[in-house]
Design goal:
About 5% of the residues lie in helices and about 50% in strands. By secondary structure, it is mainly beta. It folds into two domains: about 80 residues, no CATH class; about 110 residues, Immunoglobulin-like. Strands 3-2-5-6-15-14-13-10-11 form a nine-stranded mixed beta sheet, with no helix packed on it. Strands 4-1-7 form a three-stranded mixed beta sheet, with no helix packed on it. A three-stranded antiparallel beta sheet has the order 8-9-12, with no helix packed on it. Strand 13 and strand 14 form a beta hairpin. The chain starts with a strand and ends in an 11-residue tail after the last strand.
Length: about 210
């Protein structure tokens, strides 16, 4: 299969399996070219949902990032044209004053809800490249220590990113970069960074009755 997209995009493909759900199946990034070859085993010709994400650094102001994402459900075929990232200008007011709370005692992260959103995608990644992702129904998550120690390296830094999904009617929301550095002799070092996230072509599929 040939993937065509935007140079610099990160992408992930999900198989949509009837009566089962979404199955994370393939992913990568278009770092050196706007297209790539990917082998996909899909003999039942399931539809796929494709997420793409690009990041504009220091936009709309120094130290702030604008994350442009898109999602699109389409039939499986030999050539997939990845949905282009949302390109409307980011109003600077949307990235000011993002409220984020981290409770180290309960390992709870909460953030501003996005109007109209009915789900949030959460990605966690450490400096070694190990990755985990979750789908949330609320704007709060408890990170169990088992998740961190089983998937991530607690001796290195790791990042968490959150954005609203399945919400074509959602107002532009805030994505939260949440950085924790674990140090052996002290508490985690925490840094917050607010960034704008905007969605387009987002399709909700009720795959599980």
């Amino acid at each position: 299969m040939t993937l065509n997209g935007t140079l610099g995009s990160w992408w992930e493909g999900y198989l949509i399996v009837p009566n089962y759900g979404w199955v994370g199946y393939a992913g990568g990034d278009l770092t050196s070219s706007s297209h790539m070859e990917q082998q996909i085993y899909n003999p039942d010709d399931y539809q796929m949902c494709w997420y793409t994400q690009t990041v504009d650094s220091d936009s709309p102001a120094p130290g702030e990032n604008t994350v442009k994402m898109s999602a699109l459900t389409m039939p499986f075929s030999g050539t997939i044209n990845l949905p282009a990232a949302y390109t409307h200008a980011a109003p600077s007011a949307s990235v000011d004053g993002a409220a984020v709370n981290w409770n180290a005692g309960t390992r709870t992260l909460s953030f501003d809800p996005v109007v109209g959103a009915n789900a949030y995608m959460v990605f966690l990644e450490d400096d070694s490249g190990r990755l985990a992702h979750l789908l949330l129904a609320s704007s709060s998550i408890i990170l169990p220590s088992e998740l961190v120690t089983a998937v991530l390296d607690p001796g290195a830094g790791w990042d968490i990113m959150v954005w609203p999904v399945y919400s074509p009617q959602a107002a532009p929301g805030k994505l939260v970069d949440f950085l924790i550095r674990f140090v052996p002799e002290g508490p985690p070092q925490v840094e917050f960074q607010a960034a704008l996230v905007q969605t387009s072509n987002v399709t909700k599929v009720n795959a599980i009755p």
